[in-house]
């Protein structure tokens, strides 16, 4: 199916040409999370200033789904307010539950829609977004 091919291309593009991969060389907020199913791990760094995600980077090893999802997630949240980033995370959860969700503000994410048919793969795709939630929680704890 043409659409599937397109989606696969988008996923492979993020996997082979990752955006925001490699950590900052400073002490920006850092969170680590692993996928309990396979043990793969992601490290996420966020620079949050004035309630906005100024920058985000990640490192880790994992399958193409998890790594491309991390690339998309970091790219999509950069420059957004914390609320907007959490809204994206919420929409991603709904996408993984099989809902039709609009990602006009970062269309590449829609390429992961088909993943919802494979429960083990949902964990792969969701890893980066769970790391984002954990990072924002951590940030709010440090500044409250
Ligand atoms: Fe099996 Fe990710 S846990 S593909
Ligand atoms: Fe480990 Fe996908 S198989 S994150």
TrEMBL record:
Residue intervals of the NIF system FeS cluster assembly NifU N-terminal domain: 7-124
GO BP annotations listed: iron-sulfur cluster assembly
Record-level Gene Ontology MF annotations: iron ion binding; iron-sulfur cluster binding
Gene3D superfamilies per record: 3.90.1010.10
Pfam families: NifU_N
InterPro entries (alphabetical): NIF_FeS_clus_asmbl_NifU_N
Family: Belongs to the NifU family.
Record protein name field: SUF system NifU family Fe-S cluster assembly protein
Organism: Paenibacillus spiritus
